[in-house]
Amino acid sequence: MRALQCMIPQAVTVRGLVRRILLLHLSGTLVLLADATAALAQDIGHGQRLAERWCTECHAIGSVPAKRNRAPAFAAIAAKPNISSDVIASFLLLPHATMPNPPLSRKDADDIAAFIMEMKK
């Protein structure tokens, strides 16, 4: 009986150790998934396609000239001091008197903003 009592604490300790190892693996996996999600958060190619569809009427975007030069080029926007993807995305989601208001989701605005920020020199 004494031998059995000595084995029970060891079994509990091993079980606890296995749980800790599993929790560490789970935590590591969650961190990796969070990083992957952040990496997928902005799709520059999607932002470029949206910009080519909705913005080239007034803005020059990269090598695509504006149809009408009524607004700053995306490269000029990206070069402004204190500009960031968040500032651009927030701006795009607000209604504007001088800009059309295409139906942008937050993801669309983030993607266009990432595309614009790629032009920063």
Describe the structure.
It is built from five helices and no strands. Helix 2 packs across helix 5 (106-117) and helix 4 (85-93) crosses helix 5. The chain folds into two domains: 1-40; 44-117, Cytochrome Bc1 Complex, Chain D, domain 2 (Orthogonal Bundle). With 121 residues, the protein is an all-alpha fold. It is elongated and about 75 Å long.
In summary, what is this structure?
Helices cover about 65% and strands about 0% of the residues. The chain has about 120 residues and is an all-alpha fold. The protein starts with a helix and ends with a helix.
List the helices and strands and how they pair.
Elements: H1 2-40, H2 44-54, H3 74-79, H4 85-93, H5 106-117
Helix pairs in contact: 2-5, 4-5
